[in-house]
Write a structure and sequence with these properties.
The chain has 11 helices and 9 strands. By secondary structure, the protein is α+β, with helices and mostly antiparallel strands. The chain is elongated.
Length: about 290
């Protein structure tokens, strides 16, 4: 008799876990605006409106913006998220969709987690191709609030919650709080974020957002801004303005000729490939 009861309970849990996203989020009143967004834009939310239970390899984790996030977006941009074009909404939803079913325990990594997303639009994802020729998807960085190292130079906007345990860093260095709820739906899992993630932009816009004005000025003066922004899979290790101030002669005289001039100095700060802090440990050697 006890065995039958246990099997029945397991069967019930299986049914619950296979709910479509709209049904699975119905118990969260703070997600009502997101549910409305999906229902009024079914053409750009096909993957999120699926009723099919996906295999483990196909599952995703949706970072769902709360109702507060919709308010902040309206205040910050002067327009509602629903006023965006279908293509813009599609890019945003793809950026909020992480590959794999990620629970809060999966997100809890000592050095943070680089999570691949479904965003592969060339405008926002210029990371190049993998060795097999497949497009490399754009990513977000998830870190524990209690273990985050370093200081964010500039945060565009931030809404923290008393129950938040993680930060998510997206384009232009936007850092927002993630509230782990470990929600389960037929396509994987979902968590809650308190702001819309910002789509990634090019190198120099991102540098400017982070206050790296001397680096941007140097690229402009040596006429390599366009090439830097167009380069696929380029990582810039950028000195801050204080670092440049220690070498004022870099910006004087001939800027482009010789190993000690500005252009050569900037070139030494560019790495071929996409590198993150999770790629390095103390004592790591970087080869150009």
């Amino acid at each position: 008799m006890k065995l039958l009861i246990l099997l029945a309970a397991l069967g019930k849990a299986s049914v619950i876990s296979a709910q479509p996203l709209l049904n699975a989020t119905a118990a969260y009143p703070q997600l009502s605006d997101f549910r409305t967004l999906l229902m009024t834009n079914p053409n750009v939310a096909t993957q999120l409106l699926t009723n099919v239970t996906l295999s483990a390899a196909q599952q995703i984790t949706v970072l769902i913006p709360s109702n507060d996030a919709f308010v902040v977006y309206q205040q910050h941009t002067g327009t509602g998220i629903t006023a965006l074009s279908s293509s813009d909404l599609s890019n945003i939803l793809n950026y909020h969709s992480l590959q794999g079913a990620l629970s809060s325990s999966d997100l809890q990594q000592p050095s943070g987690l680089i999570a691949a997303t479904a965003l592969m639009n060339q405008t926002y994802d210029n990371r190049g191709l993998a060795s097999n020729g497949a497009k490399i998807p754009q990513v977000v960085y998830v870190s524990s609030v209690n273990t985050t190292n370093g200081i964010v130079t500039k945060v565009k906007r931030q809404m923290m919650s008393a129950v938040a345990e993680f930060d998510v860093k997206s384009g232009e260095g936007l850092q927002t709080a993630l509230e782990p709820v470990d929600g389960v739906w037929s396509g994987g899992m979902f968590q809650i974020v308190n702001d819309f993630l910002t789509l990634p932009v090019n190198q120099t816009v991102t540098m400017t957002a982070q206050g790296l004005n001397s680096m941007v000025s140097g690229l402009n003066l040596t006429n390599v801004t366009e090439g830097t922004n167009a380069a696929e899979g380029l990582t810039c290790v950028c000195p801050d303005d204080q670092g440049f101030a220690a070498y004022p002669n870099l910006f004087k005289g001939n800027l482009t000729d010789g190993p000690g001039f500005l252009l050569a100095t900037l070139t030494r700060h560019g790495l071929t490939g996409s590198f993150y802090t999770t790629n390095f440990t103390d004592g790591s050697l970087i080869h150009w």
